[in-house]
Amino acid sequence: MPESDRVLRSFRSSCPSGASPGCYPDTLIGVSDKTTGGRSGNLPPETRSFVGRRDELDWLDQELDPGIGIDRLVSLVGVGGVGKTRLALRAAGRIRDAYPDGVWLVELSPLHTAGLVGLAVVEALRLADQSTGPVIEVVAEWAEGKRLLLVLDSCEHVLADCVAFAEALLPVLPGLRILVTSREHLGLPGERVLYLDPLPVADDAVALFADRAAATGFALDDTNRTAVEAVCRRLDGIPLAIELAAVRLSELSLAQLRDRLGERLPSRLDLLVARDGEGPPRHQTLRTAIGWSHELCTPLERLLWARLSVFAGGFCVRAAEEVCAGGPLPAGRIADLLARLVEQSIVRRHRAAPDRFRLLDTVREFGADWLRALGEERVVRLRHRDHYRRLAREGCAEWNTGRQVAWCERILTEHANLRAAVDCALTEPDRRVALEMAADIGFLWRHCGYLRDAQHCLDLALATDPAPGPDRTRALWARSAVALLQGDLEVAADWAFRCADAAGDQGDPAAVVAAAYLIGGQLALSGRLSEAIEVLSATPRLPLRQDGFGAAQLQVRVALSFAHMMRGDHERARAVAEEVRAASVACGESWSGAFADGIVAQMDLTRGDVRAAVGNARTALAGHGLLHNTVGAAMALDVLAAGVVAAGDGHRAARLLGIGARVWELTGRAQMNSPDLMATRRSHELRVRDEIGDAEYEKAYEEGLALSYEEGLDYAAHGC
After folding, report:
1. Pairwise CA distance, residues 516 & 477, whole Å
2. In the beta sheet, which residues pair with residue 181?
3. SUPFAM superfamilies from the entry (predicted)?
4. Which of 156, 232, 452, 469 is 20 to 30 A from 502 (CA-CA)?
């Protein structure tokens, strides 16, 4: 079987046991370049018609146009539900051709703790941040010389962090513009603020009501326009309130809806609205409208709504069943009740994955208030924690199997929920649960690209010096492994020796082998190749496990192959890499196998087998692509470019070098700052220039550089 077929077979057979396809989409929600039709950025497609706001859009066109607007910080400010996000996305979509380096949406509503805005930006930009420096510096270094627009959505609960982010970056990045949506403006010099009013009742508000009510069979005409205007006026023209009211025409007549909205707010909702009693009247109107939607729900629908408020980012039916069931709400009723909430626009289907669901921020806040009023907040949050605790444990247990790729997709999709769950665990008195979750989630995040999140939760869990045990050993391993990928070799060595001591005391042979990977890997990356080979070669050959330590068993052999290669012992490097490839095929995993494919491709080049080198480099690229491993993909592209240079296709090689440069940019460190790798890359460039000339090289290189991440990988995967 060709190696590329092995990778595809691994992908097709990789759905985790017991998981329904709707639990996670094929690509990470909200970050794929595919959502932009090939243009750089991550703006999601619009799923509903856009009504009104012509004047506001014209103003934003001027302010966001880099050729016209002077100020580079623009804020859309208004009450919840007034349509800030929809307007920002529509405006950003209209202007994105003016930003060759992308328009990037950064969704901040899932953040539960301070200090994470920079991380959210790094994740949205798809930067494979492997450094340990401040996140602001990582973004600044990547964005230097670029022209891009960041949309920071829902800033009000992390306002101070957003202020610090904008203050740090705008002065040093002249090509950066930031569009903010918030209930408060940032208050910075030069900030242009558009205070977003509700829709004009007689015009846009009525049009929005008619548009959303059309799904119920309603048609606007002269006989009902006055009643529609009355409904919209009572809702103060707030778009979310109008949308929630419009869908009620499936069960109420227009007259009944108008009359209901004129009644006094029920007394049992007074407590929920009272907290805004001194706030803006339109905010109270919105909460009143949401309260009426709440009143029209059945008791079980209300209870499900309240309990769903604990999810961050989104959820699937199975997660809702496990987290929200209990008491009067049986798990078997949740799917039907969820469908009813979708029909009433309380719950929305996710933009990028129809089998996932989400709550709008204001609706979630109302549900969270109700959950607190019911006295259930802590118990439901603990159910949420325990659901994602089980998910992480299952992911680690099956990581070194043919389900690895699907687990990676699921970890990416559930990132916000995993972050919320581990944050919950870290604030609870039972530190054993926090340690277990940090060990599991930290391991998974390390392999799926969330290095800083992994570092954060592992540092907090290990800071209390937990008692010895398997969970502590796994946490120590994950912490050192994170530092290795970050290039923080001294820190990696410190944690590695702690892990080795813990593994020795524990008496688990697989843990001892896993610790050897940390020590040997650190030595190899430090250039102490003989010592690395000695440590890595001395590890016992154990039956390969399916869990995280099983993955470490393979990574020991990858590190050994790399050390042999760097030392110039090409035959031993090939032999070990081929051994890893065979083991990878046998267990169905892709992470270590893709690195082994890349090493074999480099060894093919040393033999002069150009055809094999190109094939194996493409196989490595496919494997890294399945796991969103940006660093691995960048390394594979360098090897592939070398193979294509050797094959004599200079134009294609130049494009591949451009694609590779774009991917290396996402890591923050071209060729990992390795002088040898940079010198090798330079030699390939000179060879291509000699073959096709400087002018043709620059043209082809720029063509490759202009491709999006997915377009570049697709180009590299096909043709000779």
Report:
1. 10
2. 76
3. P-loop containing nucleoside triphosphate hydrolases (SSF52540), TPR-like (SSF48452)
4. 452
